[in-house]
Write a structure and sequence with these properties.
The structure holds two protein chains of two kinds.
Chain A (H helix, E strand, L loop, with lengths): L22 H8 L20 H22 L5 H5 L4 H32 L5 H13 L2 H12 L6 H8 L7 H26 L3 H8 L4 H30 L2 H6 L10 H11 L1 H22 L8
Helix pairs in contact in A: 2-13, 4-8, 4-10, 5-8, 8-10, 9-10, 12-13
Chain B lengths: L1 H11 L6 E8 L3 H14 L3 E8 L1 H9 L6 E3 L3 H6 L8 E12 L20 E4 L4 H12 L8 E3 L2 H9 L5 E5 H6 L5 E4 L7 E8 L6 H12 L1 H9 L3 E2 L3
Parallel strand pairs in B: 1-2, 1-3, 5-6, 5-7
Antiparallel strand pairs in B: 3-9, 4-7, 4-8, 4-9, 4-10
Helix pairs in contact in B: 2-9
The chains are: A mainly alpha, B alpha/beta.
Chain lengths: ~300, ~240
Amino acid sequence: MTEDERPPAVEQSGDSEAGSGARGASERGSVPALPARRPRRAPRAVPPFGFVPLAVLAVAFLALPVVALVVRSPWGSLAADLSAPGVLTALRLSLICSLSAVALSLVLGVPLAWLLARVRFRGRNLVRAMVLLPMVLPPVVGGVALLLAFGRHGLVGRWLDAAFGLTLPFTLAGVIVAETFVAMPFLVITVEAGMRAMDRRYEDAAATLGAGRWMTFRRVTLPLIAPAVGAGAALSWARALGEFGATITFAGNMPGSTQTMPLAVYLALQSNPEAAFALSLVMLAISLTVLVALRGRWFPSR
Amino acid sequence: MLALSVALAGCGEDQSTETPLTVFAAASLTDAFTELGEEFAAARPGAAPRFSFAGSGDLALQIREGAPADVFASADVVALQSAGDAVDASRVFARNRMAIVVAPGNPHAVKGLADLGRDDLKVVLAAADVPAGRYAAEILERTQVAVRPVSLEATVKGVVSKVALGEADAGIVYVTDVTAAKDTVGGVSIPDAQNAVAEYPIARVTAAEHADEAAAFVDFVLSPEGQAILARYGFAAGGT
């Protein structure tokens, strides 16, 4: 899951293995000339033999289930299914929690990505592996781990409970914690890659001209890595919106406080599959809208 | 997903003397049916039953969508009916009752259903979409206990694990769940007058690839031998 999930927008500049010794030399030396403002239109590419049918197969494979969902959706009772009590609440909770998770991921993840990309410190590879772990961990395992850490009897949770009377499981905050846990790695990995790919001479120039570190980051680095931050935010938002396993394990399922759309879909599937199809359709529409809106902005088509 | 993995597993099977049999069974039957399967295989040379355990609703949906099952053992009559024409006539092979699940040693001194309304208890139930949740709601309604659960779990095993992990103080689950998890949770029984009875129906899947073997398995489950195994896991006898 880790490697292939890397977003298309971010270009790795060859040497991503940060541990290698001659970092300064290789990174600075291999940086190409400052990018031209407008790349020339590339000549029409001819695909290698066999690529077209394979690509068509890939698209069909990815699109077919979605098409099936649309075809099988109970269009006749759609209005009734969607106006059922709890649907709007679940939708609202999904949006609140996933957006909060993205906000939290940005606040914590961008500084982390900066450190991982710019500073060489002992155990950096270990830190990176720890940070990416939630991406490969089955979400249910993540949920159990969160319980063991932040649950009522958890390592930290016990103390939170005793000191502040604060318990995260079964609360909205718990949902946000679970979603942030699974979503933040996507942001960190994307932003880190963006920082590595960026031309650091802009930062050097800013520093030479007297800009402080914070000013340089805000006025030079951040605008340059904006596409990576955007792509990372979009990916982590998508992950948070679809999050199921960690949420139901850590935060439970309570309509109105912790039942997000994926949980509502899963439960509806138990008793009323038609309603589940309708709910899935809503998720599909939202995801598609966001992807289309982002197209060209953060996933530039060249 | 499950259906797919079962289908894929089927592809690799050698077609020699073994007669594979795919049984879709409710999650609450996991332990009992695993043993039933072993006994069935021992009694019938060449029999190789294979199980897919999941929520009854999930299984019904998978069977309706053409999953390659031979037998469907549901924890719930409604779920089995929702499989519609995809299954043959069913017979009730076991009954289950509900119990209150608490932390080991019952630290909060829960004595009965009335205690579930206490404010100092965190109560989890199964969601009304799954059978265990439906029975719990039915019981609470009949006994007029107002419970404010902190979570409505998607599976009855979710209720057990929330209590076992100490996140919740009490919940309503099947008697058999308490038996199965007796090392990590405690149980408080619910009097028969207040309790609900869950009926477990079993049926052959209409499109069963191994129809004879499927019928034999259903007969075995209903036989005195099969019933004895089920009783060991806390199920009451079926029959009808």
